[in-house]
Write a structure and sequence with these properties.
The structure is a single chain. Helix 1 runs antiparallel to helix 3, helix 10 crosses helix 13 and helix 14 runs antiparallel to helix 15. By secondary structure, the protein is of the alpha+beta class. Helices cover about 35% and strands about 20% of the residues. The chain has 17 helices and 18 strands. The longest helix is centred in the C-terminal third of the chain and has 20 residues. The two termini are about 25 Å apart. Strand 8 and strand 9 form a beta hairpin.
């Protein structure tokens, strides 16, 4: 018996696919990285079935790669060693909503928008918004964040407990329902961001929040990136409860106008959103206006109308598509780094200067409230010289960030694209990560060649 036959016996033939189209759909993500096909794609419905899959994989020593929607950006789900891709689309249920505890327990295949639709009737919402309608399991695997992280934190801040199936099929719980704990090692933090290299998530308990009584959005335009970032620092220092704070550079604003048919000023722009009660936010809005005008803001427009506010954030979220449609024949390559906020303006200005030196087409956007920014590059994958310059640019960006106390990725994750920078960033701590990986996955079957080289 081979591992495919064993999987069919476990799951039934209709949930084990070796169809070429299915394999191809699971051999890529949204990144520019080279595609590769798994041997089979399986569709489990329960924790016990995932455990059985891992036991088969361990027995036959074949790789196991978890798959949500394939929206990752660093090749996380690409099965370069073949093996079994575990598609969690049939494990997409809400198991329990504990509204009085502000908790929800879900399966990994549920998406962010599906979850929020169900929570709304309870007056609750899940805040982490990476832009894509990713699965909760995938968002935890990469420790995703997004536009609301400045107020609510990233995925690691939301996780109370994970049910994890280990490489040998054993099932563990990493936390509890309690708000805090001083008991034992903090396994939640170990598995969040592990990208499927330490275990497969089958149940997830998350913190959720009350829907804000009132929200208002604003667009503030500045002459320079430095002034925009300075304004963010001052707003945060003032204790103003901003829920979103996004920087879009002037080049990207041109793409916004072209794609979304808007007529925004084409200069460095902050997209800001406030959550709270109406009376309190009126004061915050007034204080924010004073701060930004003191720092050279050219104009700040508040959008209290829900339709106008939606258009504002829709334009920001659709920026990647704006670049794609504006550069026919080229592929979007998105990379991100994160730095201390005091280093952010210098990093963004340096990135823009380097783009111009390399004659690369790209825009810069960032979750500036937490020091994270992205460069959106449009590249011709068939042009070796352009791809070489793109690689040099990414390396420059990463090394600049790490040298200033930052990280090679704030939210996209490591995958295969940022793996080569792990030693540079973590030093001797990287050896500790390798030790942990070998202890939990001695046969190296869980998403091999991601974060850590196969051993």
């Amino acid at each position: 018996m081979d591992h495919i036959t064993a999987l069919v016996e476990l799951l039934s033939e209709d949930r084990v696919s070796t169809n070429e189209t299915t394999l191809r759909n699971h051999g890529k993500d949204e990144s520019h990285h080279t595609e590769a096909l798994p041997h089979a794609v399986v569709f489990p419905k329960s924790t016990e079935e995932v455990s059985g899959i891992n036991k088969i994989a361990s027995q036959y020593e074949v790789p196991v790669i978890p798959f949500g929607l394939g929206s990752s950006l660093e090749g996380h789900v690409i099965p370069y060693q073949g093996g079994i891709t575990v598609d969690f689309s049939l494990m997409n249920q809400i198991i329990e909503i504990r509204e009085n505890d502000f908790l929800v327990k879900v399966q990994p295949g549920i998406t962010r928008t599906q979850l929020n639709k169900a929570l709304k009737q309870y007056g609750l919402f899940f805040p982490v918004d990476p832009g894509a309608d990713a699965t909760i399991g995938g968002m935890i695997a990469t420790n995703a964040s997004g536009t609301t992280s400045v107020r609510y934190g990233v995925m690691s801040d939301q996780v109370r407990n994970l049910e994890v199936v280990l490489a040998d099929g054993n099932i563990i719980q990493t936390g509890s329902l309690a708000v805090k704990s001083s008991s034992g090692y903090h396994l939640n933090s170990l598995f969040v961001g592990s990208e499927g290299t330490l275990g497969l998530f089958t149940e997830i308990t998350l913190q959720v929040y009350g829907i804000p009584e009132y929200t208002t959005a604003a667009r503030a335009v500045f002459p320079t990136v430095s002034q925009a970032v300075d304004a963010v620092v001052k707003i945060l220092q003032a204790g103003i409860p901003i829920a979103r704070c996004e920087l879009v550079d002037s080049y990207s604003m041109k793409q916004v106008n072209h794609h979304s048919k808007t007529n925004y000023l084409e200069a460095p722009t902050l997209f800001v959103e406030f959550h709270g009660n109406e009376a309190g936010l009126a004061q915050d809005v007034e204080f924010t206006q004073e701060i930004v005008y003191d720092l050279g803001c050219q104009e700040i427009i508040f959008e209290n109308d829900s339709k106008a506010a939606y258009q504002l954030w829709e334009a920001r979220h659709n920026l990647a598509y704006a670049f794609i449609h504006g550069a026919s024949g080229k592929k979007l390559l998105v990379t991100d780094v994160c730095l201390p906020i005091s280093e952010l303006a210098g990093a963004i200005n340096n990135a823009r200067k380097t783009l111009e030196e390399f004659a690369l087409v790209g825009g810069i956007v960032g979750h500036v409230g937490d020091g994270n920014f992205h460069v959106l590059l449009m590249v011709d994958k068939n042009d070796p010289k352009e791809m070489e310059l793109t690689e040099k640019f990414t390396e420059h960006l990463v090394k600049y960030a790490i040298a200033r106390g930052g990280t090679c990725t704030g939210e996209h994750g490591v995958g295969v694209g940022k793996k080569k920078y792990q030693r540079l960033e973590h030093g001797a701590a990287y050896d500790v990560m390798i030790t942990i990986k070998k202890a939990l996955d001695p046969k190296c079957i869980l998403n091999p060649d991601k974060i850590i080289d196969k051993y």
